[in-house]
Amino acid sequence: MGDFGPDSGGRIKGLTIIKPIVYGNIARYFGKKREEDGHTHQWTVYVKSFRNEDLSNYVKKVHFKLHESYPNQNRVVTKPPYEVTETGWGEFEVVIKIYFNDSNERPVTLYHLLKLFQSETDIMLGKKSLVCEFYDELMFQDPTQMMHQLLTNVRPIMMGTYRHENDFEEKREKTVNNILNAKNKIRYEIAELNERLKQSKETILKYKNEILKMEECDDVLTQPLQCPTTSLPSSTAVSLPSATSSASTVSLNVSVDNGATTPTTVTTATTSEVPTSLSISSSATTSINTLSI
């Protein structure tokens, strides 16, 4: 490999390289507690390539940090397979730190909960190993010239093909299908909610218009009623027909300015004849509707 200098040849802007990996652990139950130390399981924690590549081409070392109860809890592996095998009786978090051959690339840290126990009968009896592993990706964004060369010239693993206990391709297909189904379901629910929202807005507008119409009717009903009137002066003479009776009753209907008809009766006590005229005094506007004798 050529000399790239202290900056590893500089970074390649806009380039992203992804390397998929698998990490986790496999554990096997002894069948009983070991007498000398009380341990119940043997386990192996590991990091490996998903595509059966030789990680050593760009990985310098992998640091596994175990529980503090283990002597030498910091285990460093500098070549494949990148794994640590131990025995124990309890689960704990393992810190996995991956260092690269290009020191200008920052290390990547993974966290894995060491899994020992599961309810499956065969695993509990020690007839079957427990596997707990995960898929992840190392993403190199704007890698250096040196790292780019290391990442693009990887070799296949010479010790045989890694076998993944989990079928990640099948999981990937199921996950993608689940995501697509969820997106379609959400899209349908959004369309349904939009339609309901549209109907609600139309209903609100309809009721608003009805309320406005009712308010306009209320305004009309609360206005004073205007009726035509015939104004009379404060003192008005009304001519009456002559009569021969000694006493007469004159009935006069007078309509005041509010539109109501108020019957007014005027009686004369003249013994000789009914007066031929009648004086009406009023301080209000008055109209005569009928006059009867």
UniProtKB/TrEMBL annotation:
Residues 176-210 form a coiled coil. Its main location: nucleus. It comes from the Eukaryota. GO terms for cellular component: nucleoplasm. It is found in: Nucleus. GO terms for biological process: chromatin organization; regulation of DNA-templated transcription. Residues 11-154 form the YEATS domain. Keywords: Chromatin regulator, Coiled coil, Growth regulation, Isopeptide bond, Nucleus, Transcription, Transcription regulation, Ubl conjugation. The keyword Transcription applies. Gene3D superfamilies: YEATS domain (2.60.40.1970). Chromatin reader component of the NuA4 histone acetyltransferase (HAT) complex, a complex involved in transcriptional activation of select genes principally by acetylation of nucleosomal histones H4 and H2A. Specifically recognizes and binds acylated histone H3, with a preference for histone H3 diacetylated at 'Lys-18' and 'Lys-27' (H3K18ac and H3K27ac) or histone H3 diacetylated at 'Lys-14' and 'Lys-27' (H3K14ac and H3K27ac). Also able to recognize and bind crotonylated histone H3. Component of numerous complexes with chromatin remodeling and histone acetyltransferase activity. Component of the NuA4 histone acetyltransferase complex which contains the catalytic subunit KAT5/TIP60 and the subunits EP400, TRRAP/PAF400, BRD8/SMAP, EPC1, DMAP1/DNMAP1, RUVBL1/TIP49, RUVBL2, ING3, actin, ACTL6A/BAF53A, MORF4L1/MRG15, MORF4L2/MRGX, MRGBP, YEATS4/GAS41, VPS72/YL1 and MEAF6. The NuA4 complex interacts with MYC and the adenovirus E1A protein. This is YEATS domain-containing protein 4.
